[in-house]
């Protein structure tokens, strides 16, 4: 203990931290992220097939030609989710694009929406309130139906944005960018594309050129499963939640009446944010439901309700700029810098200690000394006690069986996993046909043709749902390109991935990097952090549009825009100067935030840790970060960015 005469609160905190460490140690594995396999790389025909797109209308898409082979476009954007759409919209609004004809979008999916295209499981909702999350509500004039939008409404909103900005016929779907290369002689990106055409059709290879290439390919895009021996031999239907199989369950996204589950024993593997929504829906239809748990989620109250049109007009969408104001109001409560009025008032706004992972302006910059870091981490743990204990008490107040309740309690700080929200999940375990199969942190042992084995005992099931998540957002050290599989080459044939691997995260403001002119990306590292990713996306889109717009003013037309080495290294220094604030993540239970413990493993070389720390976010919160960007943009000089007129511009 730090003091000779510890107080009762100090002793309580010490005991709690010991409990957290004990629970985390159960889940630490030497194979880290290697305990999972991406569906597309599973080496099993059956598991590979689980990654295929069940939603694409191949016949309709094959009749369209949104991108012409050999053509040149001003902007080529990789990603048709909210990030790609918002970037495109901000380019159009800023007048840089000239019009939507200057923009082309490429995506592996069969339509707009990103994660909301792929995920169509029953019960799907966004965990951030729709008024703050759904992008461009002011611009589209749309009023969300409920406080928390359904997955269907979110996908339809992506299509609405595309229509509003005349992008709906500017996207090439079912297509992978296989390579992109900067051509010095023409000041253009040459982008190689492989377009899938559906079952039985040959892949079509295309090549286009772009003045600007923008990567906005999303975070949770690659579904994976644990390497469970015998999994591919399970004889019943099996599918991942990111590719929900309504042909097996019955129903559809708009009406998930899953009559196909009647009389069936259903197993669901995983109890993360997805399962919290899926489990109550499965329980309504399955004869028996077995929920296999490695680590319980912390489950907060939800409070879903219809949008009141009068409240919408008078208190929510009541003035120009209301959505950004609301986003930052929500963010203030999560960064321990609360505004006087709580506009959102949901369970998120009760999580003061969530600032441990997204930063806070309240305590300034934490000195990177053991003493100061220890003080800071202790302060965060104390700040979290009220919420984390309340969350565990909520389990006791809802779940009737004491043993089950104890297994459903989250023994880790609020910031260590994505918080979840439900007024149905915990209640589901009071139903006699719902069974919690807790694995005490070990995970499922193996699979048989007829079921799953936990601690040596087989549990027979007829249908298996894999709610096992995605490749970690920390994959590749926050590299926005490596997760796409692109071989991306800049000046002098320099590899983007090799630069990132050698130096760690290296950007200016999280959106561009030296040696890769006219390349911009939705930030994965070195940017402001927020629980609301839609806010992060929009802030980045505005900044990208500003940089390109100012550069074109300077150049008098299409520009060549490139961050300097000095500027990106100075910026990395500012990120590292603040990184000690985020030290509390080191004590987290293994999960996607820590790359299953790899990121926080003890005994790592200090230089390796320094390189990893470069991927940190701006640890003083999103509003503070926006203020820094606004100050940077104020004089319009684009300090740290070299600009020249592109030789290819007319």
Automatic annotation (TrEMBL):
The keyword NADP applies. It holds the Pfam family Pyr_redox_2. Belongs to the FAD-binding monooxygenase family. It comes from the Eukaryota. Its cofactor is FAD. The keyword Aminoacyl-tRNA synthetase does not apply. Residues 73-296 form the FAD/NAD(P)-binding domain. InterPro entries: FAD-binding_Monooxygenases, FAD/NAD-bd_sf, FAD/NAD-binding_dom. This is Pentalenolactone D synthase. It comes from Podospora australis. Keywords: FAD, Flavoprotein, NADP, Oxidoreductase. Gene3D superfamilies: FAD/NAD(P)-binding domain. GO terms for molecular function: oxidoreductase activity.
């Amino acid at each position: 203990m730090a003091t000779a005469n510890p107080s009762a609160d100090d002793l309580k905190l010490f005991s709690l931290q010991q409990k957290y460490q004990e629970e985390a140690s159960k889940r630490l594995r030497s194979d880290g992220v290697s305990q999972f396999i991406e569906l597309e790389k599973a080496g099993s025909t059956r598991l590979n097939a689980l990654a295929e797109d069940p939603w694409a209308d191949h016949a309709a898409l094959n009749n369209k030609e949104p991108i012409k082979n050999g053509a040149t476009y001003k902007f080529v954007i990789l990603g048709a989710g909210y990030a790609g759409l918002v970037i495109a919209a901000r380019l159009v609004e800023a007048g840089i694009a000239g019009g939507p004809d200057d923009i082309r979008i490429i995506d592996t999916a069969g339509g707009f929406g990103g994660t909301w295209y792929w995920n169509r499981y029953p019960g799907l909702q966004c965990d951030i309130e729709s008024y703050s999350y759904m992008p461009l509500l002011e611009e589209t004039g749309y009023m969300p139906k409920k406080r928390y939008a359904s997955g269907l409404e979110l996908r339809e909103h992506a299509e609405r944005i595309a229509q509003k900005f005349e992008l709906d016929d500017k996207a090439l779907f079912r297509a992978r960018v296989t390579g992109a290369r900067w051509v010095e002689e023409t000041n253009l990106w040459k982008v190689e594309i492989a377009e899938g055409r559906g079952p039985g059709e040959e892949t079509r290879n295309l090549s286009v050129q772009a003045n600007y290439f923008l990567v906005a390919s999303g975070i949770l895009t690659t579904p994976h499963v644990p390497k469970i021996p015998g999994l591919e031999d399970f004889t019943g239907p099996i599918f991942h939640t990111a590719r929900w199989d309504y042909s097996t369950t019955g129903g559809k996204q708009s009406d998930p009446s899953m009559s196909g589950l009647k009389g069936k024993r259903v197993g669901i593997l995983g109890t993360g944010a997805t399962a919290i929504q899926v489990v109550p829906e499965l329980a309504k239809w399955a004869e028996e439901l077995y929920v296999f748990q490695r680590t319980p989620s912390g489950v907060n109250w939800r409070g879903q309700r219809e949008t009141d049109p009068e409240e919408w007009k008078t208190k929510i969408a009541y003035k120009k700029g209301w959505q950004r104001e609301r986003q930052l109001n929500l963010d203030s409560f999560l960064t321990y810098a609360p505004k006087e009025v709580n506009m959102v008032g949901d369970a998120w706004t009760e999580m003061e200690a969530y600032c441990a992972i997204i930063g806070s302006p309240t305590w300034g910059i934490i000195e990177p000394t053991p003493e100061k870091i220890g003080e800071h981490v202790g302060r965060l743990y104390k700040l979290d006690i009220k919420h984390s204990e309340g969350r565990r008490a909520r389990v006791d107040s809802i779940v009737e069986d004491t043993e089950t309740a104890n297994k459903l309690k989250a023994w880790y700080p609020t910031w260590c996993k994505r918080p979840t929200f439900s007024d149905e999940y915990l209640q589901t375990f009071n139903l006699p046909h719902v069974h919690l199969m807790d694995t005490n942190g070990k995970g499922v042992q193996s699979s048989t043709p007829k079921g799953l084995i936990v601690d040596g005992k087989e549990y027979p099931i007829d249908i298996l749902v894999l709610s096992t998540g995605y490749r970690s957002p920390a994959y590749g050290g926050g590299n926005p390109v490596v997760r796409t599989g692109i071989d991306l080459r800049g000046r002098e044939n320099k590899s983007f991935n090799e630069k990132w691997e050698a130096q760690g995260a290296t950007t200016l403001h999280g959106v561009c990097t030296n040696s890769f002119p006219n390349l911009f990306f939705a930030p994965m590292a070195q940017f402001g952090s927020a629980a609301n990713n839609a806010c992060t996306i929009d802030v980045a889109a505005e900044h990208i549009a500003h940089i390109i717009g100012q550069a074109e003013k300077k150049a008098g037309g299409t520009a060549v825009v490139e961050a300097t080495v000095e500027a990106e290294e100075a910026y990395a220094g500012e990120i590292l100067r603040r990184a000690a604030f985020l030290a509390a993540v080191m004590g987290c239970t293994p999960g996607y935030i820590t790359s299953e413990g790899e990121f926080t493993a003890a005994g790592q070389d200090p230089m390796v840790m320094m390189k990893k720390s470069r991927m940190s976010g701006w640890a003083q919160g999103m509003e503070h970060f926006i203020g820094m960007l606004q100050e940077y943009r104020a004089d319009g000089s684009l300090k740290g960015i070299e600009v020249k007129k592109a030789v290819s511009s007319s």
